[in-house]
TrEMBL record:
SUPFAM superfamilies on file: P-loop containing nucleoside triphosphate hydrolases (SSF52540)
InterPro entries on file: CobQ/CobB/MinD/ParA_Nub-bd_dom, DNA_Partitioning_ATPase, P-loop_NTPase
Stretches assigned to the CobQ/CobB/MinD/ParA nucleotide binding domain: 6-193
Pfam families xref list: CbiA
Name of this chain's protein: AAA family ATPase
TM stretches of this protein: none
PANTHER family attached to this UniProt entry: COBQ_COBB_MIND_PARA NUCLEOTIDE BINDING DOMAIN-CONTAINING PROTEIN, P-LOOP CONTAINING NUCLEOSIDE TRIPHOSPHATE HYDROLASE
Length: 226
């Protein structure tokens, strides 16, 4: 079966794209899916993250760093579609990068992380507009917003989450949300998803299990689902 392609994208920097791409990859690998993570950001954060992995760990996330050949990301992806179940692409934040658009034209799912605060909601308009235009040419594209780096105890978070739920028709907010947690920073230096941290990261693990359930439902991925 052709791999399902997931683009994690938002032109806004620092909204948790790489965090979501790597943790989603680690969760899906643990569910038995054959996953290729593509780091399409020249900053190479996902590549550095995954390269920190213990080579003896039974769980290995496969990452390809393509940030410096941005123009040909979609061509690169074609090499993997027949051999993988899922391809997850961590897109760069640059507003003038061609990658978000070219990826959304070939993806099955665009995951758009947004921090629920007023500034980040305003800044998301451009990517939602781009996603909307890409949906017109790519019938397979599902677009979902993900509440990322959520500061659950802030009063304005609730209002922002409500706004996100109805930001744009056809682009619902995923039920699972990713709160702001120290475990995510710890996972980066561990080279793996938060699962590697064990019981100390229980809440973060639960968040990614939930997000992976939501993603699997959208894409019709059954294998290994809890
Ligand atoms: N849920 C979270 N809780 C706490 N810290 C987080 C969370 N998600 C991301 N971070 C931290 O916030 C910073 C930015 O996250 P990340 O690199 O995932 O964002 P990004 O959108 O990929 O950034 P860029 O646009 O630069 O590629 C990192 O230091 C990361 O560790
Ligand atoms: Mg990033």
């Amino acid at each position: 079966m052709r791999a399902k392609i997931i683009a994690v994208t938002n032109q806004k920097g620092g909204c948790g794209k790489t965090n979501i791409a790597v943790n989603l990859a680690g969760t899906m690998v643990r569910r038995g899916h054959k996953v290729k993570l593509i780091d399409a950001d020249p900053q190479g954060t996902a590549t550095i993250w995954v390269n920190n992995a213990d080579p003896d760990s039974p769980i290995q996330i496969e990452v390809n760093g393509l940030g410096r050949v941005a123009g040909s990301v979609t061509k690169e992806i074609k090499k993997y579609v027949d051999d993988y179940d899922v391809i997850i692409v961590d897109c760069p934040p640059a507003a003038d990068s061609p990658v978000p658009q070219s990826m959304m034209l070939v993806s099955d799912l665009a995951l758009i992380p947004i921090i629920p605060n007023p500034g980040d909601l305003w800044a998301a308009q451009d990517i939602l507009e781009l996603a909307s235009r890409c949906s017109e040419s790519n019938d397979a594209l599902n677009v979902r917003l993900v509440a990322s780096i959520v500061r659950a105890n802030l009063a304005l978070t609730k209002a922002a989450l409500e706004q996100m739920a109805s930001m744009r028709e056809g682009m619902p907010l995923m039920k699972a949300r990713i709160n702001q947690r120290a475990a995510y920073a710890e996972a980066m230096i561990s080279g793996d998803s938060v699962h590697i941290l064990g019981s100390s990261a229980k809440a973060a693990i639960e968040e990614f299990e939930n997000l992976t359930n939501d993603v699997s439902l959208v894409l019709g991925l059954k294998k290994g689902r809890k």
